[in-house]
Write a structure and sequence with these properties.
206 residues; alpha/beta; 7-stranded mixed sheet; two-stranded antiparallel ribbon; 6 helices
């Protein structure tokens, strides 16, 4: 997702899935100010990074927006994709797309209309293998989201976390997250982290 300054309203009205079983499908984007999909170039790079990790896995998109990352994951073989989206209009459209596309995929996609940070404050039933963190531009939501993911069991050792922010954003992630990939495209920096083991209290005091 990308919510930037809306310089040309409605200049982007469709999302194109770029890989997998749904490749080439175009999906309508909710008519909301500044709602923009993660670019094709960035998505292609991201899913090249994850090409051997995504099939059969559970994925979570914290700020779904257009659904670009979640639908791309579904298309590429994810077993379960969960989208968090707070805006009612956007969430309704994402549900409509999910209803249309789920029968064409081996996995399933569901949409929760929720406030992401509030939802992350509750304990996860089970960790996700891959999490996408692409909050609205300059919202300062990336760091608290990452902290809550770790704190409440949404990720575990071996999980992958994708974080997309403005390029000047400092690295503010849990200590056990290892930066594996990093690239800059224009004003955006996108990074892929691998979640490591959490040090025990005994190890921390030694």
């Amino acid at each position: 997702m990308r919510r930037q300054a809306n310089k040309q309203k409605n200049s982007v009205s469709q999302l194109r899935i770029i890989g997998g079983t749904l490749r080439g499908r175009k999906l309508a984007i909710a008519d909301l100010p500044g709602l923009r999909p993660t670019t094709d170039r960035v998505r292609e790079t991201l899913f090249n990074w994850l090409q051997f990790e995504i099939a059969g896995q559970r994925c979570l998109d914290l700020f779904a927006g257009t659904g670009a990352l979640g639908f791309e994951a579904l298309s590429r073989g994810a077993d379960e994709v969960v989208l968090f989206e707070q805006q009612r209009q956007a969430a309704q459209l994402l549900r409509q797309h999910a209803q249309d596309l789920n029968p064409q995929c081996t996995g399933t996609l569901s949409v929760a209309q929720v406030d992401t940070l509030q939802s992350l404050k509750t304990e996860a039933p089970a960790p996700f293998a891959i999490v996408f963190v692409d909050p609205p531009f300059r919202s300062n939501l990336a760091a608290p989201s990452c902290e809550l993911l770790q704190q409440n069991g949404y990720v575990a050792e071996g999980s992958w976390v994708y974080v997309e922010t403005e390029k000047e954003w400092p690295l503010q992630v849990p200590e056990n997250w290892q930066l594996e990939r990093e690239k800059v495209a224009g004003q955006v920096c996108y990074r892929l982290f691998l979640v490591g083991a959490v040090a025990s209290e005994q190890e921390e005091t030694e």
